[in-house]
Design brief:
This protein has about 425 residues and is α+β, with helices and mostly antiparallel strands. It has 3 domains: about 140 residues, Beta-Lactamase (2-Layer Sandwich), CATH 3.30.450.160; about 80 residues, Helix Hairpins; about 140 residues, 2-Layer Sandwich (Heat Shock Protein 90), CATH 3.30.565.10. Helix content is about 60%, strand content about 20%. Strands 2-1-5-4-3 form a 5-stranded antiparallel β-sheet, sandwiched between helices. It is rod-shaped, with a radius of gyration of 53 Å. It starts with a helix and ends with a strand.
């Protein structure tokens, strides 16, 4: 686009330059021609004035030498008897014609032009002839043409330069908009254009940003709906998992439990995937408040299965830099794990301040956990599948995750996060 604009400007400037320079060049040539003829006519008139004062040949010759044309040997005075004072001039019959017609004339000759003026001196007539060479007719013309050519070149070059700069101001925002469009198409929903350039281009950039924001909002809303829907499935799935313990057929119960566990894992990963695509939003989070909120949310199911949850906050401040959604998902997985593998009893979350950070312990009255179980694909009954997700989320937040047994018996899961 920029090259086309520059070529268009060059073509237009060239046409303007030609329309401007060519007539000026012709005018300069005509002015130089007329100037040379006027100079010759002035020399002739000077000689004519001298003839009116004296007809002595020596006086006439002196006057001739005082003129520019005479000094250069281009002026002569012709008498009827054939006497010549000064330069003879070319033998082209023009002097004889002037004697006969007694009419002044400026004529073109082989070598340039001639100014011929007949002068009546009483009963006699003399003819004064001044010749003008081609070099005098073109004196200064070539220099003027060169200057005009330079002006034309500067005109074209200046227009091309200015157009190139203006075109760059137009095309640069367009190229940047093209780049951000490609990045948006590749999945980078955070990219935005910088409106710049002419008003139309800047408006195009703003329209693109509005489109990108609208697409981002729609995708975010869709992912949040998916995450919310999957989140709502957790409670009935967990309740179903607990009810499967009442199935008498051991083989069927084991098969159903495995299917439900895998479904729970798929739901958890669906939530995390939707939230991950929505982008992490790290902020200052009160872990104690988030845990209390999630325990209250799971309260109805806890009442149904006879589970008692306690939250102990043993620190005046439990603030950390985390993604709230990731923390909520981790707490939900821990609670689900207790519901599924412990059943009725008492479980607690204990929040302490230790080693410059916040430690969260999830204690239960269950059989405890093997540290090696927190690895996908190595646990029986898929116990460690959800906990592996919690481990990854904790480590991605810069924390430390561990599982084991309480000294007094029961399971213990710990998460440590750097403090604010």
């Amino acid at each position: 686009m920029r090259a086309r604009l520059v070529l268009l400007a060059a073509a237009g400037a060239t046409m303007v330059a030609v329309a401007f320079v060519v007539p000026l060049a012709a005018l300069v040539s005509r002015v130089a021609d007329e100037r040379a003829v006027n100079d010759a006519e002035s020399d002739v008139q000077l000689v004519v004035a001298g003839l009116g004062v004296s007809r002595q040949l020596t006086d006439i010759e002196l006057v001739i030498t005082r003129t520019g044309s005479g000094a250069e040997g281009r002026l002569g005075v012709h008498f009827p008897d054939g006497t010549l004072v000064g330069a003879p001039g070319p033998s082209d019959g023009r002097v004889e014609q002037a004697f006969a017609d007694r009419r002044s004339m400026t004529v073109s000759t082989t070598g340039g032009k001639s100014v011929i003026v007949p002068v009546a001196l009483g009963l006699d007539t003399v003819v004064v002839r001044a010749d003008i060479g081609a070099d005098r007719l073109r004196a200064g013309v070539h220099k003027a043409w060169a200057l005009l050519g330079m002006v034309g070149v500067l005109l074209v070059g200046g227009s091309v330069l200015v157009t190139e700069r203006l075109a760059r101001n137009i095309t640069r925002p367009m190229r940047e908009l093209e780049e951000v469009s490609r990045r948006l198409a590749s999945g980078d929903l955070t990219v935005r254009a910088q409106p710049a350039g002419p008003p139309e281009t800047a408006e195009l950039g703003r329209a693109f940003n509005h489109l990108a924001e609208r697409v981002d909002d729609l995708l975010l809303a869709e992912r949040e709906e998916v995450a919310d829907l999957a989140h709502r499935l957790r409670t009935p799935l967990t309740a179903l998992r607990l009810r499967l313990d009442l199935v008498d057929d051991t083989e069927s119960r084991g098969e159903l439990v495995e299917h439900v566990d895998r479904l729970e894992l798929s739901v958890t990963e669906l939530i995390l995937e939707a939230r991950r695509r929505s982008g992490r939003n790290t902020e200052v989070v009160d872990i104690g408040a988030v845990i209390s909120e999630r325990v209250e949310w799971w309260g109805p199911l806890a009442d149904d299965v006879g589970m008692t949850w306690k939250v102990e906050v043993n620190t005046p401040s439990s603030l950390v830099m985390l993604d709230r959604e990731d923390l909520q998902a981790s707490i939900d997985v821990l609670i689900e794990n207790v519901f599924t593998h412990v059943g009725a009893g008492t479980s607690r979350f204990v929040i302490d301040s230790i080693d410059g950070g916040i430690r969260v312990r999830c204690d239960d009255d269950g059989p405890g956990l093997d540290p090696g179980s927190v690895e996908r694909g190595r646990s029986e009954g898929s116990t460690g599948l959800g906990l592996d997700i919690v481990r990854r989320l904790t480590e991605q937040a810069g924390g430390v995750f561990s599982v084991g047994e309480r000294p007094e018996g029961g399971g213990r899961i710990e998460m440590w996060f750097p403090g604010v």
